[in-house]
Amino acid sequence: MDKADVLVVGGGPAAVIAALTAKSNNPGKEVTMLRNYEDTPIPCGIPYVFGTLEEVKQNFMPDMPLEKAKIPVKVGQAASIDREKKICKTEAGDEIQYDRLIIATGSNVIIPKWLEGANLEGVYTIEKNNKKIAETKEALAKVKKVVVIGGGFIGVECADELNKAGKDVTIVEVLPHILSLAFDDEIAERAENTLKERGVKVAAGSGVKKITGDKKATGVVLNDGTALEADAVVLAMGYRPNSDIAKDAGLKLNDKGFIKVDEYMRTSDDSIFAAGDCAGKKDFNTKKLSMIMLASTATTEARIAGINVFNINPSFKNEGTLAVFATALGNKAYGVAGITEAAAKKEGIDIVTGCFEDVDRHPGKLPGASPLLVKLIVSKQEGVVIGGSVCGGPSVGEIVNIMGFMIQNKMNVKSIFTAQIGTHPLLTTAPTKYPLVKAAEIIVKSMKS
Amino acid sequence: MDKADVLVVGGGPAAVIAALTAKSNNPGKEVTMLRNYEDTPIPCGIPYVFGTLEEVKQNFMPDMPLEKAKIPVKVGQAASIDREKKICKTEAGDEIQYDRLIIATGSNVIIPKWLEGANLEGVYTIEKNNKKIAETKEALAKVKKVVVIGGGFIGVECADELNKAGKDVTIVEVLPHILSLAFDDEIAERAENTLKERGVKVAAGSGVKKITGDKKATGVVLNDGTALEADAVVLAMGYRPNSDIAKDAGLKLNDKGFIKVDEYMRTSDDSIFAAGDCAGKKDFNTKKLSMIMLASTATTEARIAGINVFNINPSFKNEGTLAVFATALGNKAYGVAGITEAAAKKEGIDIVTGCFEDVDRHPGKLPGASPLLVKLIVSKQEGVVIGGSVCGGPSVGEIVNIMGFMIQNKMNVKSIFTAQIGTHPLLTTAPTKYPLVKAAEIIVKSMKS
User: Fold this and answer.
1) Does B427 touch chain A (CB under 8 A)?
2) Looking at the domain assignment, is residue A49 inside a domain?
3) A54-100 residue pLDDT tens
4) Which of A286, A360, B288, B429 could cross-link to A372 by cystine, CB 3.0-4.6 Å?
5) Which residues of chain B does A438 touch, with a Cβ-Cβ cutoff of 8 Å?
6) Residue B28: alpha-carbon gap to chain centroid
7) B211 and B231: one domain?
8) What's the rounded mean pLDDT across residues A291-308?
9) B401 in contact with A at a CB cutoff of 8 Å?
10) Domain span at B194
11) Same domain, A412 and A351
12) Residue B42: which residues within 8 A CB-CB, separation 6 or more?
């Protein structure tokens, strides 16, 4: 029987980082990875396989860091866990004995049972499996009209990439706007307009009733009766945690079906940790269960699991999911961190918001300048930043990280008003109108009055 | 006699922000600006007038915010301050009575007395004066060979822009590398190599002895004997605080010649504040006097002066100059925040550093990907981030601001290791190798052992 001091089940970003962190902090221990496939895609890169990248291979997650750290990879589907004997069994019947187990089995695509036609030929899902991705890429290359169902990040990015690849694309979203779960309306509307300007048709506000076709999908019918023709349909209706193996082993799940973990990412069995999409999350601000599935969140959890796997370190705890993320449509980008205004109001949090818009170069006549809108959300009583969103050019990707650090540090909006920022004509807005500072100024002023 | 509740002397970013902030927080008060010229340049944009921008006008600081806030602008050179009578006199003999005065007179270009030939025709300085900038632009348009003396930010940016405009440019720096005061060697060397690749010749390590020529400059001779031909010479040897009017009024200056101010930006006279290049600065980390002159620092000081001008607010204090800045050479950018490794060692601070390099997209095959190097500097005993530097693509401009927030918040490196960051294929590195987190990981590990 194979043995490992630490067995990591899974192959995605959480699995890789959990394995690397466990090994790096315990160089004398054997850390082994058990994953389903020979190779793993970079999950966030998958949509870009359908337009920008030429080959699926360009989106493979490199194994080099694992090789360098001397972490062996076994390929096989984990089938069951015997917690008493500390053994993980694969579907092929292999057994691996572990001292510590880290479950990073990720998430599986949702195909709603109620959706008529979901199993027709020509209906594709975005799975974290290179072989499937390659098949989907090949199939979509041959069609013209594509309907993407689901206006979340994956759906929007796939729609935009397929449009870039020359397809006639319509995206269907049940909410009034695409990306409505992530962004407040004013940002979601901007993203939606950009997507439309780029040539993607948006059918929002009604939702899908069924996929039509005999053997092969030929169209989509919406709840409002609209019929859309389609040579292919892409389902992007979300993912659910892949927690079955944990449940079967008697580990506790939370009310959303994720593996229950504590702040150290320990499951209800002290020898077993979980990280990534399969692991339970609480929102940083509301402390309610969160269903956020992001590679970035997953890697943070994996670092915490990896560093605590043999010795609990009170310095390395998970204080809750911030949910920092961004997406890009051509040269325009949209990001959000922490709570949105809509979510804060729904939670009954007393907030003040401040928005400021400018250009991301100074003077604005410099080439590459793009409008930049920033919104900060602050708890009214304390003046603490609890959320933010931004839309602009590529600098959005790091501005949203600034917001993340503000929220994580529970920064007071007053200290942002007098924060020392760095600016450069070709890289940022002017120091006189740096938008995070200006948004803070608006909030400080409205809190005074 | 004219009267103003708040008189702001100066026209640059500090003056504008001080005036706007004072007015915004005291809407009932009259705030007046007294500045030397009809129009003011965006100071950080000046180098870009010589290459990227077509007209000097494109770099004018807009007066619209002042107009909107109903802040009248008087044009005139402030000549003296009568502190007893609370009157500011202009060179033209006008008098303005003030209740509060904010001095934001900026800095003047340094022309070293020892530099032979500095007064020859064809020798130009970079002054914050649109008329002078226009004259210099016009004159430089007619020449071929330009020697830029001084390898700080202004010198480097002017050299790069003049090169872009088709000139044959050599930059002279007395230190071993350009930008050596700002960056540790490994970053300064990269910037220097980029500048060379772009076609600028670099003569570093010797320094200028004299400018040659009869009536007109024809060349530059270095201390090591090297003779450089020149049709024009640009002096970029730094700036000194324009504090004469304060000194003449009996206000205290600090040992570096800046106007002495407290944490609220109050001078030695409680009715008079100072902000920007003319105002004294202490380094955030070392608490020693700093000579940093940055528009971004200036605007922070101006916000603090403006909000405290009538009522001191203990929430809005200047805790010292972080010095967050960045520059760009084509698609490459370089940034620094807080202390450098060299400066920390010189100060005797016990530090640990962590460097990590990757690409700023994921997968790295995506278009626009650029290498990205991050370095964090942490105080060894406490684990607190006190400095950082970064070189990479345009995202450097905001990554350096993340570092600034880390330093300002005295973040522990452990919390950066488990920070929740947001990533996107087209905007950032991968979540598995986000460089700030990876640099923190290296430091956390080295602090453990």
Assistant:
1) yes
2) no
3) 999 999 999 999 999 999 999 999 999 999 999 999 999 999 999 99
4) A360
5) none
6) 33
7) yes
8) 96
9) yes
10) 123-237
11) yes
12) A362, A363, A425, A430, B13, B59, B60, B61
